[in-house]
Amino acid sequence: MKLEQCINFVLTKAQQAVQQLFKAELAPFGITPGQYAILSCLWDEDGQTPKQLADRLSLDSSSITGILDRVEQKGLIERQPCPRDRRALQVVLTAKGRALEQPVNQAIIDANKKALVEFEQQDSENLKKYLHQLNHGE
Questions:
Q1: CATH code of the domain in which 93 resides
Q2: What range does the domain containing 7 cover?
Q3: Are 47 and 92 in contact, with CB atoms under 8 Å apart?
Q4: How many whole angstroms separate alpha carbon 8 and alpha carbon 47?
Q5: Tally of domains within the chain
Q6: Cα(39)–Cα(61) distance, integer angstroms
Q7: pTM of the full structure
Q8: What is the pLDDT of residues 6-34, one digit of tens each?
């Protein structure tokens, strides 16, 4: 099989191109795509535990800890004792983190449009559907 026909090669190249596009769109806000993912989860539901965030993002505990450290250093989140279980921590947005929701979400919408500019609407929807199927329906 030629390299260019290998699904892993094609997906990796596409992911790298999309990652660079998203990095550029998020740079004015001082966050990375991984940090955006954390913020997006918290915009959906504030006060999640690091384990909940890791599960949602399919990350291991060491990866989530590093990302949380960097987002916390930027003043966008805080880790606090969980009121339901004092042994656990919950991650909460700061006012600064909450204020980024609208402009960052707009940047993500714009990045998605740029990433899919070559596709017709139906092809774009099909691409996302097929990628979800590759992820076993996730």
A1: 1.10.10.10
A2: 3-134
A3: yes
A4: 36
A5: 1
A6: 17
A7: 0.89
A8: 999 999 999 999 999 999 999 999 999 99
